[in-house]
Amino acid sequence: MQASSSAPILQWSPDKKHSDHERWICIYPAYINSKKSIAQGRRIAKEKCVENPTHQEMRDVLSAAGLQVGVENKLYSRERSKELLYRGRIRVHLKKDDGTPVNKDFPTRESVMLHLCEMIPKLKIRQNKSGGDQVQSNPSSGKGKGKGKGRR
Length: 152
Fold this sequence. Notes:
- The chain has helices spanning about 1-5, 55-65, 110-120, 125-140; strands at about 25, 70, 90.
- It is mainly alpha-helical.
- It has a 3-stranded antiparallel beta sheet, covered by helices on one side.
C-alpha cells in the first residue's frame, strides 16, 4: 500500500521523452564560476572557468550556438547569497527522443559547459566591462578643481 502512494512523488518517469522540457539538462552559473570551489558547486577545472557568469550570458551564448534554451528563476542549493544576480538556471535541449545528440558539437553536459567557458569571455558585454572601467576612471581624475564654497 505504501509503495503505490510513494510512486507519484517521483518527478522522473520513464515515459518522458528527451524532448520534454523536464528532461533537458540543467546548468547553474555556479558550475562554471572560477570564484567557486568544488564544494561550492564548480564542476569544471578552475583554469577553464569564467569569473562570475550570469544566466543571461549563458543563455546568449547557447542560443547563438543554435541550442534550444530555457531560463528558470531557480536558486542553486549551494549558493549562499539569495541576490537576483545569483539566481537563474539554464535548461538545454541536448538529446533527441531516440537518444542521439541534437547538435553533434554538444554530445554531453560537459561539452556544453566547456563551450560556455570558452565563449562567455568573448561576449561584447564582458569586453566592454574591462575597457569601460579604465575609461571612466580617467576623466574623473581631472575633476575636483573648480569653484567651491571656499573658506568659511
